[in-house]
Design brief:
five-stranded antiparallel β-sheet
């Protein structure tokens, strides 16, 4: 009886104590970025984007960086000057043609390099596959005195909706058309310092990374893995279902997040390796709440069962016994018989 109760308790508590259980998954899992590299098909499996401080709005450049209109190429629309030595991005990166092309699901390995100018942001857009585990390895360097050395910047992973808010925050912090009239930051770029995370989405400068964890700030390298529960679809009350792509961001400007890296005043060279691994076992998303419900039910039921078994121990095999009267013990008199006769 006691052995069965002990085994039942161990079976219930083992998933909670095990480090490999679904409640104890590390956020940063991968340390190897090795595999057979495929040829990157730009605008088919990967698309390159950029945010630069000297250009805003749509300008119809083609992929070769040439102005497509018949008239002269417009000058910079903001007060920021374009320094080619600090901004190597091509115009088609920060003025893409709309609508953006539909990318194929990412199912192969890729290695890419990109240059990010000072006070800018470089982005790679992917269509991540939920049937594959995707690992990102990013290394950041810069050239100084003909020598390559590590440089710190910020690395983020955003969805399409999150990237739109990030892009809007960048534009406002770099001379957006109504930024001068509404000083939301109060003269301080760290506007989100005193705002709780759950309220930041109501601030025009607020933005968040995917699952609130994929942000690696002020570092020269980062390695992390991602496994999706299913296709990433955003459901809106007004627009219906919208497919979500993913943006890997290399951030070299002093953004509105706390503890991020400052602008490096140099061109950052990013080496990006993306490794995909097909997942052998895919659990549907409803298995997570089902598992948690089982844990809660077990925490309530198991003590009741153990208490009932303890209280009933030794009674199950007992047989009802017949009632037996307790015999009356009669004591013999201590007076001798002949003495009793004489008294009589």
């Amino acid at each position: 009886m006691r052995l069965r109760s002990l085994l039942l308790t161990v079976v219930v508590l083992l998933p909670l104590l095990s480090s490999g259980g679904p409640l104890h998954q590390p956020a940063q899992a991968a340390s190897q970025c090795q595999g057979e590299i495929s040829t990157t098909l730009w605008n088919t499996t990967v698309q390159r984007h950029a945010l630069v401080p000297f250009s805003f709005g749509f300008m119809p450049f083609n992929e070769d960086g040439k102005w497509e209109d018949d008239g002269p190429e417009p000058a910079s629309s903001t007060e920021f000057d374009h320094d080619p030595s600090l901004h190597p991005e091509d115009p088609w990166m920060y003025n893409p043609s709309w609508p953006l092309p539909t990318l194929e699901p990412l199912q192969t390995n890729h290695y890419m390099t990109m240059q990010i100018g000072n006070d800018s942001a470089g982005a790679l857009r992917f269509n991540l596959s939920s049937a594959h585990r995707t690992t990102f390895c990013v290394n950041l360097n810069t050239e100084a005195n003909n020598l390559t050395e590590p440089v710190n910047a910020d690395i983020y992973l955003l969805t399409s909706q999150q990237y739109d808010r990030y892009e809007e925050a960048y534009r406002m912090m770099h001379g957006g058309w109504w930024w001068q009239d509404m000083d939301l930051a109060g003269g301080d770029s760290d506007v989100l310092s005193d705002i709780p995370p759950e309220w930041r989405s109501f601030n025009p400068l607020g933005w968040q990374t995917y699952r609130d964890v994929h942000q690696y700030q002020d570092r020269s390298e980062a390695t992390f893995s991602l496994s999706l529960d299913g296709p990433q679809v955003y459901t809106s009350m007004f627009d219906g279902d919208t497919w979500e792509d993913f943006y890997l961001i290399i951030d070299t400007w002093d953004n509105t997040n706390d503890n991020d890296a400052e602008a490096s005043n140099a061109v950052v060279l990013a080496d990006v390796t993306v490794i995909t691994e097909e997942r052998s076992v895919l659990f549907p998303p409803w298995t997570v709440p089902l598992f948690l419900l089982g844990v809660i039910v077990s925490a309530v039921v198991v003590p009741v069962v153990l208490n009932k078994r303890y209280m009933g121990a030794g009674i199950d095999g007992a047989e009802a016994s017949t009632k037996v009267s307790v015999p009356v013990l009669e004591q013999a008199s201590t007076t001798p018989a002949h003495a009793q006769e004489e008294e009589a």
